[in-house]
Task: structure prediction
Amino acid sequence: MAESLPLAEARRVALAAQGFTGSHRGARPGWKRMEAALRRLHLLQIDSVNVVTRAHYLPLYSRLGPYAQAMLDERSFGQTKRALFECWAHEASLLPLDLHPLMRWRMARARAGEGTYQQMNRFGRQERRYLREVLEFVIRTGPTGASDVPGGGKAEGGWWGWSRGKLALETLFDQGLLTAATRRGFERLYDVPERVIPADILDLPTPGEADAIRQLMALSAEALGIATEADLRDYFRLPLAESRKALAELVEEGTLVSTAVEGWTQKAYLHREARLPKRAGGQALLSPFDPLVWERSRAERLFGFRYRLEIYTPANRRIHGYYVLPFLEGERLTARVCLKADRQAGLLRVNAAHAEREADAAETARALMAELRLMAGWLGLERPVISRRGNLARALSAAAQRPA
Result:
């Protein structure tokens, strides 16, 4: 590739790297295709919001179409076919099992009181005896939730309003002394790694911290295709100084190639295996936690799409809605919709629909309606229902009147 790239070419590189290759999403995909998509992304971010469906289900749907969520559950938390494990990566995430050795440096830092989350670092220092008691309880009892822990107390509400028992379990999870065995509803149940992670994975050698961070930076570049230093660091939430050293080494060895992108003020880096296809993209609704858009500044650089999640914005100050999903149409993000799965009524409610300035409203509405119908079916809902809010609402309502 050239020493500098037009923005349109950089966009295609990024879309292709993320699995948006322009191909049509076909019949119900099986595990082989799901695993290939996971290998491309390297992780799925987990989030508790369940307005549409849990966040970790959506990236595979966006790329593959209506797969069986139960199959992902089985591979994430099953007893016999587990292929993924849960840890802190890009926030709480599911990762392929063979990446476990690359995350052990983070667990080691947490055990040394130098983890990412200061509240857990303090708790680890101040409550060593209680942590030992909780760990011994889990060893005796097996999969344990926060409500099962003796002396755990009650949750106090708020972001870090965890009970004492929950904070102990999370601290031990952060340290790698516990892992996620399964989930009860959405509640994480913890157990010791030896009873959850296959022995052949635990027996894999642990790389040194610098080597692990270098490998994670390379995986980030592989998943993103083209990215700035900050983009690469953000993918696995890596520390600044160590990431910069790793980046320099990856450039020197040729794994990453320094380049410039039209309109970007920061230097960009291409993975040496990144492809520049003649076309890329597709037709998909994206989770707010999809790797294509989770770094909001990158979404703005690539697509001219300013995107903010407004869940924590007071209702009267929201611009686009509570839980808003971007719509990928071809190689552009052309619209955004505020969705809610109304499971009681069996409807996918489109509470607001907004088109981007460059979008053709009628064309985008037709494409988006097809996607909304597909998503409704995947979620087991009867049909989408369109509200009047947003500059795309009228065209979308018109599209809804046409036969599927």
Summary: DSSP finds 15 helices and 14 strands in the chain.
